[in-house]
Specification:
Layout (H helix, E strand, L loop, with lengths): L3 H10 L19 H9 L5 H14 L6 H14 L3 H14 L4 H14 L2 H20 L1 H4 L3 H27 L3 H14 L9 H11 L5 H11 L4 H13 L4 H17 L8 H26 L2 H16 L2 H7 L1
């Protein structure tokens, strides 16, 4: 199944720019050795020596009030150098020190996306969602002062980014069992998301790929909630055919899909080649289903027309299809 249209819908719903400004405090203290080390960091002549000074500071004073500031500086250099494993390790360390660190959760999510490892990305996504929920749930403390309001704003930014990431991953991830787990998590965390309507379609597609008996009712639910979605209608038809029910049901669903495709324009975000390939495949399936149903009823003239139409679509012969209308 081609998910280009669903991907377009979901990415539009989850589109946005997500960033959290640094709010790690640097506390100067000239009366201590730690304070002098902090001052020396800014006196370093180049990035390499500055990095060495920062690493020396966190190694010697891991629990100093300015340690998070120093770690953030080290992380920023790692980001600039595209050292994503190092970025992730620092972010996880900072989250261990402060489980409500929204910026570290966001940076960890960024690093995991660039690592191109589904397992790492899902783990980072779950951490981001947990951190956002933790801060947002404590609204009383979060709104007491300006710092609390800033924390709440950061958590909401993180939550929006996590939602967009889950949307993106659950459409693009082709492993059906993993996708089903992501979809289940989406339902629970984002019941009011504008993309929630597409979730039944993606569940049905995943169940269909697993040859699960639940694919047919899931596909029928998707077709009801998305009556203009050619993907939902196709899955409903295909899962019905696979379970060999009464031919009237097959014919009705095939006709529904056929009529929808014939009147529906190409989605603006779908590439022409992808849309035409998918549309022809779905039309071909519809005509075959109608032809088989007609043949079983003894209407061989209609069956012959259906098979001819399916053959024309298989060969890309639009003129022949038009002549059959």
């Amino acid at each position: 199944m081609n998910n280009a249209y669903a991907l377009c819908l979901l990415l539009v719903a989850g589109a946005g720019s997500f960033a959290i400004a640094a709010d790690y405090e640097r506390k100067p203290d000239r009366a201590s050795v730690a304070g002098l080390m902090l001052e020396e960091i800014d006196l370093q002549p180049d990035a390499t020596q500055r990095l060495s000074a920062l690493e020396a500071f966190v190694a010697r004073y891991p629990k100093h009030p300015s340690a998070n500031w120093a770690w953030d500086q080290i992380r920023s250099q790692a980001v600039s150098a595209s050292q994503w494993d190092k970025v992730a390790a620092i972010s996880q360390r900072m989250l261990e020190a402060n489980p409500e660190d929204s910026k570290s959760a966001l940076v960890l999510l960024d690093a995991a996306e660039r690592a191109n490892d589904p397992a790492k990305l899902i783990k980072a996504l779950e951490i981001a969602e947990t951190v956002a929920e933790l801060v947002i749930a404590d609204k009383t403390r979060a709104s007491k002062d300006d710092a609390g309001k800033q924390r709440l704003g950061h958590a909401r930014t993180l939550a929006a980014r996590a939602e967009a990431t889950r949307l993106k991953v659950m459409v693009q991830d082709v492993e059906p069992s993993r996708r089903l787990a992501l979809l289940d998590g989406f339902d629970k965390r984002y019941p009011n998301s504008p993309a929630a309507a597409v979730v039944p379609l993606l569940k049905a597609a995943s169940l269909w790929m697993l040859s699960d008996a639940a694919a047919r009712p899931a596909a029928q639910q998707a077709a009801k909630s998305l009556p203009e979605s050619e993907d939902a209608l196709f899955l409903s038809l295909a899962s019905t055919i696979a379970q060999e029910p009464e031919q009237e049901s097959v014919a009705a669903q095939a006709l529904w899909l056929l009529e929808t495709l014939q009147r529906k324009p190409k989605p603006a975000c779908a590439p022409d080649a992808d849309w035409n390939r998918k549309r022809d495949a779905y039309l071909r399936t519809s005509h075959v289903a109608l032809a088989l149903s007609a043949g079983l009823r003894g209407d061989f003239h209609l069956a012959r027309r259906g098979f001819s139409a399916a053959s024309a679509y298989a060969e890309g012969n639009a003129t022949a299809v038009a002549a059959l209308a």
